[in-house]
Design a protein that fits this description.
This protein has a domain of about 45 residues. A hairpin with a 2-residue loop joins strand 1 and strand 2. It has about 80 residues and is mainly alpha-helical.
Length: about 80
């Protein structure tokens, strides 16, 4: 077996520029051609029993994700969160 290659190699590891956080903040996230919904970080105080309930129900999935999925159903505005 021949280990040599006839293709030229480059010492440059990457030809693309470094992506900064500012680049990500300016980016428009899309699914197909539609703008993808983004999440917003919030701080909220919830009853301890409520957090324990969601942690127990969520398992490996993550209790915050479960809360995020439950809130639109609770307020009856599922269409507000539709990505279609």
């Amino acid at each position: 077996m021949n280990n040599s290659s006839s293709s030229p190699t480059s010492d440059d590891r990457d030809e693309y520029p470094h992506v900064t956080q500012a680049d990500v903040d300016r980016a428009t996230f899309r699914i197909g051609f539609k703008t993808a919904p983004r999440k917003q970080r919030v701080t909220i105080l919830l009853d301890t029993g409520l957090i324990e309930y969601f942690k127990a129900k969520a398992g490996e999935r993550g209790y915050q994700t479960l809360i995020n999925d439950t809130l639109p159903m609770a307020c009856g505005c599922l269409q507000c969160f539709s990505t279609t």
